[in-house]
Amino acid sequence: STLRLQLTPFWSRLSNIPTQQLFNNPDGSTYTPPPLFSTQRTIGIEVEANADLTSTLNLNIAATFQDSQSRGFATWVAGAPGPQDDTIARVPDGEADNNPRVMSTTTLTY
User: Fold this and answer.
1) In whole angstroms, what separates CA 102 from the centre of its chain?
2) Model pTM?
3) By C-alpha distance, which of 9, 107, 4 is closest to 50?
């Protein structure tokens, strides 16, 4: 039986991430307010273990542990139909949406 372990640290910074929305005018047509831009920083580590259980059976386990933080995120809030009373809501800097802290996979190969 052979066991292999791999650790991969990572860091990424995505900037100028647009938030785009679609709102309604009083006449039923639509309009798009100007996009708002934010930044997202992610740090983490990927861990992968690969084991030959027998000469014909292999097990691969991988996990990613990450921390994603959002900076400068804002979104438009629609008022009455039309752009005249739309406002911008700023979201406090902190944990980024839709980024899991842990992801994993397991594969058994015969």
Assistant:
1) 12
2) 0.75
3) 4
Q: pLDDT tens digit string along 68-101? A: 999 999 999 999 999 999 999 999 999 998 899 9
CA angle 87, 78, 89 (to 5 degrees): 40
**Backbone phi and psi for residue 87, each to the nearest 5 degrees, phi listed first:** -130, 165
What is the rounded radius of gyration, in angstroms, for the C-alpha atoms of the chain?
Answer: 22
Q: Give the DSSP letter of residue 83.
A: G
Please, what is the Cα angle at 41 between 35 and 42, to 5 degrees? 130
CA 109 – CA 5 distance, rounded (Å): 17
Q: What is the DSSP string of 5-74?
A: EEEEEEEEEEEEEEE---EE-TTS-EE-PPPEEEEEEEEEEEEEEEEE-SSS-EEEEEEEEEEEEEES-E
